[in-house]
Amino acid sequence: KILVIGALGQLGTELTAALRKQHGSHAVIAADRHTQDTVQGPYVQLDVLNFGALADLVRREKVTQIYLLAAMLSASGEQNIHAAWELNMQGLIHVLKIAAAQRLDKVFWPSSIAVFGPGSPKHLCPQDTFIQPNTIYGISKRSGEYWCNYYFEKHGVDVRSLRYPGLISHSTPPGGGTTDYAVDIFYKALDGQTFRCFLKEDTCLPMMYMPDAVRATLELMEAPKEQVRVRTSYNLAAMSFSPCDLAAAIRERLPAFDIQYEPDYRQAIADSWPASIQDASARQDWGWKPGYDLNAMVTEMLQQLQERRQTPAPPVQ
Ligand code: VAH
């Protein structure tokens, strides 16, 4: 059975659905710390920081794979540095310990382009380069990469990881990320509201539409073990854009869309990250190839959100 921890989050929601489509609903247990409300299919309320409860669940349900998606993202992490470190690090250490002790087949754990800091190359930032994150979220993700590599080398745990760019999806509302302006903007555009963007208009960041991120995850997890050469975490790229690029693409469909730029503390986080990523290792090792560019994403995001809201928003042109 597959256990998805953090199944109610932005990535967890989508990966749970994709894994259930691939393996059948009964084969995938969704777990999160919230009480069950909206989730169909097997669900358990679980705090990944409760080692005993997690170890018992894995044993009782005969779990063979864990996807650990519970984490506090960059912006909220800077507001709660100790809680972010505790959740992001201790959660991973619990999962790795259990994966070794109960000999799980595979583990997936998400890293992020947030591992790169101001000293890393700004453009086409490579897989191996100077890495010195200056957010607690980035520090926890870089540290987690070392833990994954250690457990692979010392304990033979087949743990695999991707350095996701900012992820954009329509299934869950924005959740504390610095790139989440690129999710919230769609809701405001369809509400006909002026969007107050917390980043400067020319802040170019690596981004990816969620269907690409889900496919990359499944392709990595299905790759033959010997092809997975990188056991810290793979750079992964699809596109890069700035708030004004995204606003222009939305305005092509919704001409009345209005945006104001009001940078806040998240600007410094965004400025510390690369503007674009080079993902040659992912392409060479397991054949990564992105599918969505900015236009394809904007078209689909607006259509999906409009369908869900059934609001008579101005027609998407
Ligand atoms: C964040 N969405 O903003 C996440 C991601 C690269 C950004 O790690 O924190």
From TrEMBL:
SUPFAM superfamilies documented for this protein: NAD(P)-binding Rossmann-fold domains
GO molecular function: L-threonine 3-dehydrogenase activity
Span of domain NAD-dependent epimerase/dehydratase: 2-236
GO BP terms: L-threonine catabolic process
Gene3D superfamilies referenced in this protein's UniProt entry, alphabetically: NAD(P)-binding Rossmann-like Domain
Pfam annotation, one family: Epimerase
Family membership: Belongs to the NAD(P)-dependent epimerase/dehydratase family.
Protein name as catalogued: NAD-dependent epimerase/dehydratase
Organism (species): Mucilaginibacter paludis DSM 18603
